[in-house]
């Protein structure tokens, strides 16, 4: 059986038009070419598709059953062709993006929507990980792009473009002992259990660690749940609190005596210099660079 796209288009058009001659006019063909195509399709399928009694062909029940599948099949064929063309132009077979846990509440999905509009056939895989693990995923090429906080020391292999500023604030449950104080000394913080978002690799020391005693988790949602339960204090994204009034009501932003209790960081889109990026990754990087130019 050797059925091609043109045969399927002709078959679909004949059923929708109601005759060989009407289908021929719509497709810009002579009626005999349409009739011959249908006859060859019937031979290939070993199936009668139209009864030719009277002036116009009448589709058989079998033809109507196949017609229901034909449109979807033609769509899939076109999608296959578009994907093949995109791949020939340098599009990735898949784009893996890792988003640092504390940034999941931000508008990162806008960038994914932009990619979907530009490359509708691209498979996009989104991962979430603590900062240290996200960098590992980039460097071991598990992911091509990462949305993460700025780093104090850059790896020689990484390259980045800045996206925005993000603020993190220290918080505790509204009914916890720490929440009773208007200002907290560094010694009080040092002696209180901290809930930190950290790498799954316990040999890596967590960032923004202040307390001698601390519990680890690999995402800010579980950290928030533990803090709400009064199991410790921790540092959470300010935007997360602003977007969730019910969480904000259960937490108090702590005021430190010795330093400003608000940590502002740039959020970067990061990639590795060691891997060849595809068309979609380059598109997103260039979009962000152009957006920064417009802001300036």
UniProtKB/TrEMBL annotation:
Gene Ontology molecular functions: DNA-binding transcription factor activity; transcription cis-regulatory region binding
Keyword match Manganese: no
Residues in HTH lysR-type domain copies: 1-60
Keywords: DNA-binding, Transcription, Transcription regulation
Record-linked Gene3D superfamilies: 3.40.190.290, Winged helix-like DNA-binding domain superfamily/Winged helix DNA-binding domain
InterPro entries: LysR_HTH_N (IPR000847), LysR_subst-bd (IPR005119), WH-like_DNA-bd_sf (IPR036388), WH_DNA-bd_sf (IPR036390)
Pfam family, one: LysR_substrate
Entries under PANTHER family matching the protein: HTH-TYPE TRANSCRIPTIONAL REGULATOR, LYSR FAMILY TRANSCRIPTIONAL REGULATOR
Similarity section: Belongs to the LysR transcriptional regulatory family.
Protein name stated in the entry: DNA-binding transcriptional regulator, LysR family
Source organism per UniProt: Acinetobacter kookii
């Amino acid at each position: 059986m050797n059925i091609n796209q043109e045969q399927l288009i002709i078959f679909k058009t004949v059923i929708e038009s109601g005759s060989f001659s009407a289908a021929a006019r719509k497709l810009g063909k002579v009626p005999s070419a349409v009739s011959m195509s249908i006859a060859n399709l019937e031979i290939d399928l070993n199936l009668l598709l139209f009864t030719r009694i009277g002036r116009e062909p009448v589709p058989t029940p079998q033809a109507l059953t196949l017609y229901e599948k034909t449109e979807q099949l033609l769509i899939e064929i076109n999608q296959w062709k578009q994907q093949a063309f995109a791949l020939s132009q340098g599009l990735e077979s898949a784009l893996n993006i890792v988003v640092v846990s504390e940034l999941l509440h931000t508008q990162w999905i806008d960038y994914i929507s932009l990619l979907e509009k530009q490359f509708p056939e691209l498979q996009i895989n989104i991962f979430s990980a603590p900062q240290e693990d996200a960098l590992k995923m980039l460097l071991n090429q598990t992911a091509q792009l990462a949305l993460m906080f700025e780093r104090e020391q850059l790896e020689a292999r990484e390259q980045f473009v800045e996206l925005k500023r993000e603020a993190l604030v220290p918080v505790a449950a509204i009914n916890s002992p720490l929440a009773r104080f208007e200002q907290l000394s560094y010694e009080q913080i040092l002696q209180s259990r901290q809930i930190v978002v950290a790498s799954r690799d316990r040999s890596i020391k967590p960032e923004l660690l202040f307390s001698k005693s601390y519990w680890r988790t690999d995402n800010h949602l579980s950290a928030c749940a533990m803090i709400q339960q009064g199991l410790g204090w921790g540092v959470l994204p300010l935007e997360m609190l602003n977007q969730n009034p019910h969480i904000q009501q259960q937490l108090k932003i702590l005021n430190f005596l010795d330093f400003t209790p608000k940590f502002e960081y740039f959020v970067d889109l990061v990639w590795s210099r060691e891997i060849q990026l595809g068309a979609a990754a380059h598109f997103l990087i260039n979009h962000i660079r152009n957006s920064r130019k417009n802001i300036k």
